[in-house]
Amino acid sequence: MTNVPNASFKQQLLTQRAAVVEQLSALRGGQVGRAEASAEHFSETQDSRAQVNTARELEFALDEHESAELAAINAALSRIEAGTFGQCTDCGVQIPDARLHAAPEAPRCIACQTEFERNHGGAVN
Questions:
Q1: Residue (of 70, 63, 72, 57) closest to 34 by Cα position
Q2: What is the value of pTM for the model shown?
């Protein structure tokens, strides 16, 4: 395990999760789903079709990014509960504390993350 207690990382992750959930809620306009929020936002607009399509694509991209971030945070919290937090999910080596402080949701060491991004076209998870 890391030198820093997992409770510190858990609190950091819970704070991040609350912020992402709030962002998703604001983006979606409350508790409605992505499709309903998009339809509501763009149903009665004076903008051109191209502007509406661009805005809709941006909204979907933001939602997708924040949903992926939320999934990564939840996975890190699961690793804390399982006792595997701080270990690279690919090779099992200890992830340096500096990396975990910067990105506590990081599932991989730098070497494995670099290889993962190379093989998956820059994907983070």
A1: 63
A2: 0.72
**pLDDT tens track, the chain, 125 positions:** 444 568 999 999 999 999 999 988 887 666 555 555 555 555 555 667 787 777 777 777 777 888 899 999 999 999 999 999 999 999 999 999 999 999 999 999 999 999 999 998 766 66
Which of the 8 DSSP states describes residue 94? B
CATH superfamily of 6-119: DksA, coiled-coil domain (1.20.120.910)
Does residue 21 contact residue 70 with C-beta atoms inside 8 Å? Answer: yes
